[in-house]
Amino acid sequence: MLITEVRAHHIRIPYDSGVASFKQGASSIAALDIVVVEVSTDTGLTGWGDAFSYVCPKTTCAAIDEMIAPQARGLEVPDAAGIPAFMENIQRNLHLFGRYGITMFAISGLDIALWDLAARVQGVPLHRLIGQAKRSQIPAYASLLRIGTPDLVAGECQTALRQGYGAIKLHETATPAVFAARQAIGAGIPLMVDLNCPMDGAAAIAFAQACREASPMFLEEPVWPPEDFATLAEVRSKGGLNVAAGENACTVHQFRQMMTAGAVSHAQPSVTKVGGITEYLKVAALADQQGVRLAPHSPYFGPGLLATLQLMSLRDDGTFVEVFYMKRAACLWRGRVDVDAGGTIAVPEGPGLGYEPDKEIMERYRVA
Fold first, then answer.
1. Which domains does the chain show, CATH number per domain?
2. How big is the CA angle at 40 (ends 10 and 105), to the nearest 5 degrees?
3. For residue 24, is pLDDT > 60?
4. Contact, 282 vs 259, CB < 8 A?
5. CA 37, CA 105: separation in Å to the nearest integer?
């Protein structure tokens, strides 16, 4: 079976996040930009992947068209055992473009699609191709976008709990918002705080110490730059709280540096950024060796979400799947991966990633 084409589809789905906002730099994001990667074969089978692209969908699409497609087109589709070597060769061929950022986002999209294809060939869900599923339902946490006002933070937390979520993550950088959330949800609900890399070491340590009484499960990415693992380790040791990081890390090699430095209690591989399923599995194995917990980064709405659910089903470690707390105008999966009243998402049981994307939705929200 040969790869005949690799194509990037830019899908833009509007959303409503209520009182919250989603900003990257100075720009407010008003829609979910998804780059779906389609790998076609000469047998008619298709694999679907997902390349990270929040504010750079055109750039990610160009990377797939100009770097990934020429590398993969015409090659034999590897089976599961052959995917790591196949992707190692792709990484080697593209290393001069850098081993992080857009290059790895595009590589991730191809990798996910190849695993989807490998499982489809066998007629089994991805988790069965890799191992033995230990969970059929994955608990979700509401990943709130940044709000700022403590009273509004408290209100959104309470609404999320009423909708069934069993845990909350904030994207706030001020302690009053953190304490407002804890008071609103009570002592028994897990609370996480994602800072998105704004602080130097001293400020991050002070913030961690100030938040202790709110008992967050972890602080996520408190330090700038995110690859300053020595400072991150200092925040972990002096701040008195667990520290999570990794959504901005690519390949198992950077995670090894992070863990060796003692920087994190929770590693956060992002399947659409780290290098796909192949690298995610390496990171998971390394985390187990190092005694570091997994807390995958997964606020996706494309095939990356399905891949994350499949991978999380292989572990009974009590981890939550991250879900952006917002109302979407449409769903590529016809609502089948929405959070249910019990606060969980069912792991798809169909071949490959589990579902085919809704072609009608893809066409309706396609960006030319």
1. 3-123 (3.30.390.10), 129-358 (3.20.20.120)
2. 45
3. no
4. no
5. 11
111-134: pLDDT as tens digits: 999 999 999 999 999 999 999 999
209: left (phi over 0), alpha (psi -120 to 50) or beta: alpha
Q: Which of 53-57, 225-229, 276-280 has the lowest mean pLDDT?
A: 53-57
Measured from the Cβ of residue 27, the count of other Cβ atoms closer than 10 Å reads 9
Q: H/E element holding 7? A: strand 3-16
Strands 31-41 and 46-51: antiparallel
**pLDDT tens digit string along 214-229?**
999 999 999 999 999 9
| CA-to-CA dists, residue 190 to 14, 96, 213, 217, 299, angstroms | 29, 42, 13, 6, 18
Contacts of 56 (CB under 8 A, 6+ apart): 102
Tell me the one-letter amino acid at 251.
Answer: T
For residue 288, give the amino acid letter. Answer: D
Q: In this structure, what token pair is assigned to residue 203?
A: 């400020």
Q: Could you report the per-residue pLDDT of 240-261, keeping only the tens digit for each? A: 999 999 999 999 999 999 999 9
Give whole-number Cα distances, 92 to 23, 37, 89, 97, 230, in Å. 34, 21, 5, 10, 28
Mean pLDDT is lowest, of 9-23, 236-250, 257-271, 351-365, for 9-23
Contact call for residues 94 and 24 (beta carbons, < 8 A): no
Assigned token pair, 138 = 């994955």
Q: Which pair of tokens denotes residue 30?
A: 């008003």
For residue 233, CA distances in Å to 106, 117, 136, 332 come to: 30, 39, 35, 39
Contact 322, 296 (CB under 8 A): yes
**Number of residues written out for the chain:** 368
Read off the pLDDT of residues 182-198 as tens digits, 9 standing for 90 and up: 999 999 999 999 999 99
Query: In angstroms, rounded to a whole number, what is the distance separating the alpha carbons of residues 139 and 81?
Result: 30
Q: Is the pLDDT of residue 23 over 70?
A: no
Q: For residue 233, what is the enclosing H or E element? A: helix 229-239
Q: Are strands 293-294 and 321-324 parallel, antiparallel or unpaired?
A: unpaired
| pLDDT over 90 at 27, yes or no | no
Give alpha helix (H) positions in 95-174: 102-122, 126-130, 150-162
